[in-house]
């Protein structure tokens, strides 16, 4: 067994798929050479920029032709992985494809067929570790995405370290996480003790395991807003402009969220001033009035929704109150791009403050579009900023400001008092985070220690943590779920294990359902009740298989008896007499002329009188097996998509979405949970070895 382990995760987003490769030492071997500090931390994960690769478009575009997703999309990503993972490690390298917002929007049938095709293609064309497609290939909810991001950010910043070295006050030592993409937005944070107790059922119970096998447990509030990513918000904004125009034949719609003079179609394409046909249709004309843009994007937050509690976020969604004295947030994805690609291009070491940021946005958006185009040609903001990026940034900045300060309630640094600290430099903030916590309540980041802050890192941390052998007989399952009162087996009914039973056996770990690690053994079930891939249901459900065997034997016996009765009295008699005669003659052994043993044959109807047997025509097994999807090595049958039998099986499956769209759980400790008085220390990843 190789000492170095690898994992490959495909982040299947709405616009493209990015593969991430991670490496770690085998936990049992890592223990032997670890220092005391390393033993009390989470396993060390290593990655590299060259190990990541992204291709376009997203897999959701294959919804109506899933048979093409393998050769036209996945093959390039699998090939990239094989270039960087040693050959002798491939069979033990887990492969995950976790899809996000784009796949959530597909119809159920298309989503199921596409996931099944991905599983089939991966199993037929690679040797990656893929024991349970229900766990490894799925659509994850926004809450799960946010939770993984929270794990990644705290791992890199040191938020899981010794509380005394990351004390934000009030016994708090973790960091909040904000993420915004094109379709959705997420927030994840651990409330203070008072709010955690008050809103226990709203929190997610998260369990991990340090390198020495000690359990680590947190209560995290996570929620998501589908349709609140920058692209979906822009679509809703344009719809509101159309509605306000009244449809009175007006073709020019003034848009304060565009630079002055920029003309766009309703779907965001720039219009040539000489294109008279396009100008005769409804289109947007930029006015560059940023204050008005802020005002017109505010209603999109839906803050006027019903709220039964004092603290509510976007759309009136209930949440624990955020204590910004101790809850310090990092924002990734659009939070970074929208604040830094243009407005902080020359100030990338400066942290976010609203007063400075808003002034820069206002200055940029009030410029004439032809002047901005000239600056783009001169690479004023670098080679990555093109016309499309510059045209969208005024709306994005307005939306981000409204979400941050009105929707979530982040203090307005630079406009409001935010505490005694006057530091505002990103480098100082990140350095301070490793010693005593963030100084400002919000900071946009892209990388920490040269490692991209990606939710995929959080997923692999949780996975590797589950491979660490437990410290003693008190085995706490690694994963997450609702913090409802535990069931008889000691876990909430919806608890999602970090890895499958088949993978745990590779590490000789207790299986879910065994002593000390009891729980729902079928962790491939999702929020809509869909079971895992039918291959896995038949062969990979651990202790369920022995209970299934007697039923199969009984079914075959009944089938044989029924067939025997249908043969008719005369044929039944002949067969019965043949069986009796065969039984007698089988005992009669005769030595042949050379001393070898031969057996006397009993002839039946259909044999030649001379005793010659009928000859069967030759059958080529290899080509047929390949055509129908038989995998000789694993003994796994993968029928081609579209066959009647498989469609019949798949038609009964619900869509496989990895986590509930609304995880509501609690941080209250239970009798089955370990004491959390001493949270172990973890370290950030080391740079990859050459």
UniProtKB/TrEMBL annotation:
Pfam families the UniProt entry points to: GDA1_CD39
Residue stretches spanning the membrane: 549-568
Domain of life: Eukaryota
Residues that hold ATP according to the record: 182-186
Catalytic residue positions: 145
Keywords tagged on the record: ATP-binding, Hydrolase, Membrane, Nucleotide-binding, Transmembrane, Transmembrane helix
GO CC terms: Golgi apparatus; membrane
Organism: Morchella conica CCBAS932
One example GO MF annotation: ribonucleoside triphosphate phosphatase activity
Biased composition (Low complexity): 665-677
Stretch list, region Disordered: 508-534, 623-690
GO biological process: CTP metabolic process; UDP catabolic process
Classification lineage: Eukaryota, Fungi, Dikarya, Ascomycota, Pezizomycotina
Family listed: Belongs to the GDA1/CD39 NTPase family.
Biased segments, Polar residues type: 514-526
Keyword Transmembrane among UniProt keywords: yes
Protein name as catalogued: Nucleoside diphosphatase
